[in-house]
Automatic annotation (TrEMBL):
Signal peptide: 1-25
Protein name: Uncharacterized protein
Tree of life domain: Eukaryota
InterPro entries: Pectin_lyas_fold, Pectin_lyase_fold/virulence
Keywords, ordered alphabetically: Signal
Length: 661
């Protein structure tokens, strides 16, 4: 079925035309879209404004560890999908090296591949997007992501958003772009809006400190070079909402408490309850080799409440000369213990359930420097329908009762897409759920051989855990990895982890009863030396560290499918302290049915004999005919495959349908 976008129908135009202007004179893509009533309907395409960020550090002249060789750019557009409708989209790539000759993908392809069949030309394609989410449009082959040029890809992301349920309240104060103070208080009990017409760039770091009962709205297309924080107290009822951009662009002053100390190195960093962040795009366009930080962290379980005159330094947790660092007496916000493990007695404005826990939805986090992490929404936090593209740990389920669902991750040259924590303070860490995660790309094979230093493998799930908290009962379900990845699980528990918070005796908590129900890799791991699947508990716990503080990985259950096979014990380096590892093969409920394709037994097709384009000239060896069909089905430029059952070679073909030669 091919569609015809030239048939005109009534258009419901809810796209942000004109509001978003390309930052660069030469656009890398043109995007047109319109709202249609169904996958067979059409509408009148309208040009959509795009924005672009490129690697902000000039890697040609600056030798900066922070870039980890990551180059390229992301062009993006925010689109609105009204309930019950679909979007018809036409994309043209202007990037010289991009063509559909080797394939055309709109990822996550598991979501898009049933939405009809697009029209794909050499540098142009039109297709439908029938659900909300974040979609990568790629004129590139499947194999492209296995090699270094992938680090320089010019990406196009289409963010398909819902209509906002919280409009800008009438009477909201328009935030001025001329007030030059470095710190501006917002609230309490007030509503604000960043206007798309203003130029929010003050030439230096700018912080908005948010207070109770405060709404901060972004008009569609508003671009604000600032950060929004509150780490000196716990606040309640904060809404940050809108399809605008919050951009950390300038170096932070060193160590100003509540502004730029290590607890506050976040584009959004807030302590409190009922904090909601909706729709925002968070970027870091700082062109210098910048310090570490996060896109978003609410109730960070590794940082204290800021106290005037005594900035928190993350280095306080690094002393490796004693069983445990000598912790200062620092006041917890919502953690059960203070930093020195004394009891916290003040839980004002702390979430007690998902009802008053923080929610992060339709947020997009895109940063370009090592040490700029993604999203951690803390205890009772929910992160949903969001996108993370970073060169460090992407999502960080580090705390009890978190929910991370429907998240698309593009992991760049370093980091764990799903990171299990480093330096959580001592308190139970249980019952978090991570479900429906689409890792559309994973370039961390680029650094996996040398990082982390302990050879524990920088895989899709894992970390080097150095906390006295016992982590238990986490459930991960349906983690889909679409392209090249180093390995599945690389998890180590270590009392000498670089960032650590062991108990006062130097004990690290065990990780108990984690269940990974469905971890799917569309391709075999990208082979390389110095990395791989790895599991290790603490290799030599102190004598006083017993029971759940002995640092073991206990009863880890992994149901997986790596290009048709389940992970086996032989796939792992298992060092010490791993008890009750349970591995099984998973079935991908979203795998295509063979019945959709017609079998022509004993036939071939090639250019001149049915096919118009031989997408895979040489073919690729795969494990099964089903996997061969999967390769074709997720590539929207592919119409059929030639499968050689003897050698396992799979070749994709395009053509008008006259196959079976
Ligand atoms: C993810 O989103 C889809 C709709 O796009 C929905 O059907 C599914 O239930 C969501 N997953 C979770 C875990 O809520």
């Amino acid at each position: 079925m091919r569609m015809h976008p030239d048939v005109l129908h009534l258009t419901l135009l809810l796209l942000f035309t004109n509001l978003l202007q390309p930052t660069y004179a030469t656009a890398k893509f043109t995007v047109k879209a319109c709202v249609a009533t169904s996958l067979t309907d059409s509408c009148t395409l309208q040009t959509v404004g795009t924005k672009i960020v490129a690697q902000p550090v000039d890697t040609s002249s600056t030798k900066c560890e922070d870039t980890v060789d990551q180059k390229g750019s992301v062009t993006w557009a925010d689109l609105i999908l009204p309930v019950g409708k679909v979007l018809l989209v036409e994309v043209q790539t202007k990037v010289a090296s991009q063509t559909s000759g080797g394939g055309f993908f709109v990822r996550p392809s598991r979501k898009t591949r049933e939405w009809g069949k697009p029209t794909v030309a050499n540098k142009k394609a039109s297709f439908y997007l029938a659900d909300k989410g974040q979609f990568s449009v790629e004129f590139a082959s499947q194999e492209y992501w296995q090699a270094e040029p992938a680090l320089s890809f010019d990406a196009l992301m289409l963010f398909v958003n819902p209509e906002l349920v919280n409009p800008v309240p009438s009477g909201a104060t328009v935030i001025s772009d001329s007030d030059s103070s470095a710190l501006v208080d917002l609230g309490p009990n007030k509503n604000y809006v960043f206007s798309a017409d203003n130029t929010y760039d003050w030439g230096a770091d700018k912080v908005f400190k948010v207070h109770d009962n405060t709404e901060i709205h972004f008009e569609a297309g508003a671009h604000v070079r600032a950060r929004i924080v509150q780490t000196e107290k716990k606040v309640e009822n904060v809404l940050i909402s809108g399809y605008g951009t919050l951009d950390t662009h300038y170096d932070l002053e060193p160590d100003v408490v509540g502004v730029s100390d290590d607890a506050t190195h976040q584009t959004i960093g807030i302590y409190g309850k009922n904090i909601r962040v909706v729709g925002l795009t968070i970027v870091n366009t700082n062109p210098t080799c910048a310090a570490w930080g996060y896109c978003l962290n609410i109730n960070a379980n590794w940082s204290p409440i800021g106290v005037a005159g005594d900035p928190f330094e993350a280095d306080e947790l690094q002393d490796q000369t004693m069983p445990a660092p000598t912790y200062k007496t620092r006041q917890a916000h919502c953690q059960e213990k203070n930093m020195d493990d004394s009891d916290n007695t003040n839980f004002d404005n702390c979430p007690t359930s998902h009802e008053d826990g923080q929610t992060v939805s339709f947020v997009k986090c895109m940063t370009w420097q090592m040490g700029q992490d993604g999203i951690n929404a803390g205890k009772y936090g929910t992160v949903e329908n969001s996108f993370v593209r970073v060169i460090d740990d992407a999502i960080k389920p580090w705390d009890s009762h978190g929910v991370y669902k429907n998240i698309t991750i593009w992991q760049q040259a370093l980091g764990w897409p799903i990171n299990f924590g480093w330096w959580n303070w001592n308190q139970p860490d249980l019952g978090t759920v991570v479900e429906d995660i689409y890792v559309i790309h994973n370039h961390n094979w680029h650094t996996s051989a040398g990082w982390p230093e302990t050879a524990s493998g920088q895989c899709v799930i894992g970390g080097i855990y150095g906390s006295g908290s016992v982590k238990s009962g986490y459930k991960l379900k349906n983690i889909y990895v679409e392209t090249a990845a180093s390995c599945a699980v690389g998890l180590e528990i270590s009392k000498s982890a670089y960032s650590r918070h062991p108990t006062a005796d130097g004990c690290v908590g065990s990780i108990v009863g984690i269940e990974i129900d469905g971890l799917f890799f569309d391709e075999e791991f990208k082979t390389g030396t110095g990395y791989g699947n790895y599991l290790s508990g603490e290799t030599s716990p102190y004598g006083t560290c017993t029971g759940d503080l002995s640092g073991e990985i206990k009863n880890l259950k992994i149901s997986s499918n790596v290009a048709g096979r389940g992970l086996l014990v032989s796939d792992f380096t298992v060092v010490a302290g791993v008890i009750g590892l349970d591995l099984s093969k998973a079935v991908d409920g979203q795998a295509v049915g063979l019945e959709k394709y017609v079998l022509y037994e004993g036939k071939n097709t090639y250019v001149g004999a049915g096919a118009e384009v031989e997408t895979d000239v040489n073919g690729v060896v795969v494990g099964s005919v089903l996997q061969c069909l999967e390769r074709c089905h997720c590539d929207w430029s592919c119409d059929c495959v030639v499968w050689d059952a003897v050698g396992g070679e799979c070749s994709k073909r395009q053509g008008g349908g006259n196959f079976g030669i």
